[in-house]
Amino acid sequence: MKKFKLLLIGILFSSFTMFAQQTVKGVVKDKTSGEPLPGVSVVVKGTTRGTETDFDGNFTLEKVKTGDTLVFRYLGYADNEVVIASNFNITVQLDESSEQLDEIIVVGYGTTTVKDATGSVEAITAKEMTKGNIVTAENLISGRVAGVNITTSGAPGSGSQIRIRGGSSLNASNDPLIVIDGLPLQGVDLNSINPNDIESFSVLKDASATAIYGARGANGVIIITTKKGRTEYSLDYDVQVAFGEIKDRINVFDGDSFRQLVNQRMPSMAGLLGSANTNWQDEVLQKSVSTQHNLSVRGQILGFIPTRLSINFSEIEGNLLTSQFDRKNISLAMSPSFFDDHLKVNLTYNRAFVNERFADAGQLNAALRYDPTQPVYDPSSPFGGFYQHYVNTPQGIVVQNGTRNPVAALLQNDNRSNRFRQFGSLKLDYKFHFLPEMTASVSAGFDKSESVGSGFSSLDVPASFNDLFIGNDSEGTGESLNENFNATLNYANTFGKFKTDFLVGYDYQSFEGSGTSTGNRRNPNNVPTTSAATPIVLVGFLARANLTFNEKYLLTLNYRRDGTSRFGPDNRWGDFGGAALAWRMSDEDFLKDSKVISDLKLRASYGVNGQQDGIAGDLYLDRYRFGNQFSQYIFGGNPILATIPSERSNLRWEKTATVELGVDYGLFNNRITGSLNAFQKNSTDLLSDAPVADGTNFTNRVLQNIGDLQVNGIEFTLNADVIKTEDINWSFNFNATYLDREIKELALGQDITVGGIAGGTGNFIQLYREGFAPNSFFVFKQLYDTAGNPIEGAYADLNGDGIINTNDRYLKEDPQADLQFGFQSNFNYKNFDLAFNLRASIGNYVYNNVNSANAQYALIQDNAVLGNLPTSVLNTNFQNTSDVIISDIFLENGSFLRMDNITLGYTFDRPIKKFASNSIRIWAGMQNVFLLTNYSGLDPELAGNGIDNTNYPRPRTFLVGANIKF
Q1: Distance separating alpha carbons of residues 631 and 627, to the nearest angstrom
Q2: What DSSP assignment string belongs to 550-583?
Q3: Can you give the pTM of this predicted structure?
């Protein structure tokens, strides 16, 4: 009986210890170095209970049962799950190097790993993204990826120009294809997307990687993956406040200097001078205060649906009077799994409300020109109390010709846009029960925008007595719809040393658009209009094969057949494809045990992509128009207007073929990693409104496929973990890009004029010419006197015929930089963090149209009024704009070094002891920290073609913020 009691007590005791809650203690270390890791998240799987490791990597977690699973998660390391048995004092090791090579990279219609990638693909995760005052999503990777150039103006919420490897076209679009959660967008339309929702970017650069997108991959592809739900619950709140100011100004004459200048140079107009001393640039610019709030919640709904819900409120005030950008976002992501993970569902849905008030950036030029001796306000003015140039006549008020008060132009005009955008996608992945190597995927997505724009001006705006109407009162609406459906079948299996991965698929996408416009309702002759864009349909059939032998030799083959409704029946379909080879040399026996080379992969690829964006949607239609009274035929004694054909149905795809050689490397256990790529892109059949031979058509220029462009480039990337200790971590990224663009062929070998400029009518400053870079500057060579002063209207007779005319203009430089650099540094000392970004551009040239169109003494007379001038006129003493506007004296080297941002933060670990896992990070920073350049204008970094005329300056912004996590 006694033994039975002892046995019973033992059973009860063992049962108690099995189900009792215990305290688990332990330490978390780096598997390679053995150093402890601070700040590692430790959570009981399936619950919200957890903690973080301290500075020594130690942790303590109460109320843990035998059989519970602890999840250890740390940024930059692979997750580790540990099942608690009888040992409640554990040591956990996290592996970093394996994650670097096995890190998932999203590619077209699937994923791969860093180790298995054969093309030029770069993945940027949240920890590597650019920090600072990020309003639009694309700026998260600004300066971060070799070969990718992002240019954003200073206007609040403004979109960006994105170029991957310099683009591939002359007249069609050079924008990359943007894909969000599997949904391809139309154009670069990212300012309504919350940057805080983005998990990662994958940038596909070479043709073998982009060929799977066929007709839309010629300019590269950027794949954006948004954040998804997790099983563990978390709450994040981010807030930031930004204070912006534009410090730099174009140097113009102040009031006193301008009065002196007029009396010296144009005394006959001295009677128009006022007594004020107004800095009009100061008057149209303002200091700004902006705020951003982000709240996100992650966790499981109903115990099996990982969900993420986020809300964003952004109020971005511009630095030009009246400019404002407000955005509200809500996004939902759900990713449940069914049937033992055989069926995976991914649902994303986003809603954005964007309200903008646009300020006319042209008033910045008006601020340069407006008479600085006149005041902003005039109590006797009939125009809302703003000073304006006008005279009273017996018939009534007459507004004088000339520049008008820029402050009034901004404050008395209200131009707004209210946009509602919703987009999302639903993806189903089913892994067959009877054949688990086979996965079928179906995805459907949509992107719909509805917008209402309005333009309204006060009835007090300047108007003469005999004007037909006063100001503007107009409204317009717009609607666009992008729908996408794709289905793929994927088979992945391993046969001995052979690893195979095959994919076939179908893709359908359609675009529609419509709009209305009331026109100016104050104009009695106004006629409202309704418009509808030509619907566009894209259909694609695709296939890909990834073959790996012995984990060392890799081959990727891509093929896509695309059809578009844009072109005629004979040219509607195109075939595109690519191939890539890679050799993981570091896995060979002669390098396998190297203590220096930890990873080395050689790559070679070739592929052909298409281009059909940025051109009209109805090129499949031939057009006919009637001639004028001078193009008639006489039939039966009656004149008949000639019908002039415009054949367009024979147009076809632009194509870009790319060949590339690359090396991916890792040194010293991947403490140093990077890549080196050399490539050549050849674009053919470029669409251009180009000349035709005399007598072959009814016009001398028609749209045709005639033009070849070649881009040669080298890219280099270096990532380094410089210091990695218990208290100090310092890592940086450096990237460099060299690009050389050259036009190889144009229609009939004839030049094409481009680059219209201000300062006269019909002037242009750039040219397309065979053998030169696109948009090369076409200028006269300025002559100088013995003292080194420019001689007005004196140019070199380059062809020696004794006559100075257009034949003496020459091509000098181009807007494209020869070299571009990016540098990003991240430094951590205990709980302090410091990060900054630098970018540099070398060899880009800028045409200073501000000076060329305004810095001449004759412009003191601004029609019937006085106009101010840039003080640079004192350096040239130029008199007449028409004599000097094409001079190469206005062409300047725009090379620069810019610090985009710098941030300093401090993180408080578990400041609220009540919760197992929480932190508060407070930070401060600065955006647009400094700019080093010899360019005489405000900023040499320009979107477009390198002509500096009307550009919204970038403000310097001071930032403070907090990140709160539970």
Answers
A1: 5
A2: TTTEEEEEEEEEEEETTS-GGGSEEEEEEEEEEE
A3: 0.87
